[in-house]
Amino acid sequence: MANHSSVRQRTSLGGGSLDEARRRLVFPLDYANLDEARAAATRIAPSIGVLKVGLELFVREGPRAVEIGKSLGLDVFLDLKLHDIPETVARAVAGAAALGVRYLTVHAAGGTEMLRRAANEAARSQDMILLAVTVLTSLDDGDLAAQGVQGSASEHVVRLAQLARGAGVHGFVASPHEVPALREALGRGELIVTPGIRLGPGAGGAQGEDQKRIATPSAAISAGADLLVVGRPIRDAADPLTTARSIVQEIAHTLHPPRP
Ligand SMILES: O=c1ccn([C@@H]2O[C@H](COP(=O)(O)O)[C@@H](O)[C@H]2O)c(=O)[nH]1
């Protein structure tokens, strides 16, 4: 099992300003087929650190989607959000490790035994980092109340992250809003990944699409996030590469503000 601080260290997020910022940007290959995904990945590759393969592409194309990132020399994040009985999840984690992915997600809500089996299986692979998805960024306090969850999304995120850490998971997916509470509860050594990133002033409310807990890249970095997942703001931009580059600049300036 990975030790307390090693997961964040293993991502090597330090280094030069622009290169460090680039390595923190995760681009989801949310495309309908391999050709579209490969074309987009090839175009955007110089400005990102990680390619994320999610349900849409993996369900259609399977492991060939993972090969896109590997062939471009990028870390691959397999975002399958596994949530099933412990035996089934453990065997799926072993399968993902065999594909050579760097990151893999499971749902923290799967419970202690499922998380423990997943973490043990992930630890067999030297390179794979298991991430526990806490509360999806598309949910807010009202959605959680409708599911019978007591308290705020932030409280639930911390509760689930603590459960996952107790089971041996040291990386977490949450919205930028919960990062300060997670850092306070878990310390600096854990890896925190934040989707729900939106650009510009609209990030305060209007431009979230189905995302409900959103923030700008600079707000996420200031809050203490390690990796930022930015999908549609790049994918659907008129010029995706320029948009990705400007996000990298924003991350770099937030990490290392220019001296006055
Ligand atoms: O809580 C979560 C967990 C995962 N995601 C994934 O991140 C991207 C976000 O895409 P956008 O287009 O930037 O909204 C997407 O692949 C999700 O499956 C998430 O959004 N929230």
UniProtKB/TrEMBL annotation:
Entry-linked SUPFAM superfamilies: Ribulose-phoshate binding barrel
Positions that bind substrate: 30, 52, 79-88, 137, 198, 211, 231-232
Pathways per UniProt: Pyrimidine metabolism; UMP biosynthesis via de novo pathway; UMP from orotate: step 2/2
Entry EC no(s): 4.1.1.23
Molecular function in Gene Ontology: orotidine-5'-phosphate decarboxylase activity
Catalytic residues (positions): 79 (for ompdecase activity), 81 (proton donor), 81 (for ompdecase activity), 84 (for ompdecase activity)
All residue ranges annotated as the Orotidine 5'-phosphate decarboxylase domain in the record: 24-247
Entry-linked Pfam families: OMPdecase
SUBUNIT field: Homodimer.
Function text: Catalyzes the decarboxylation of orotidine 5'-monophosphate (OMP) to uridine 5'-monophosphate (UMP).
Family listed: Belongs to the OMP decarboxylase family. Type 1 subfamily.
Name of the protein in its database record: Orotidine 5'-phosphate decarboxylase
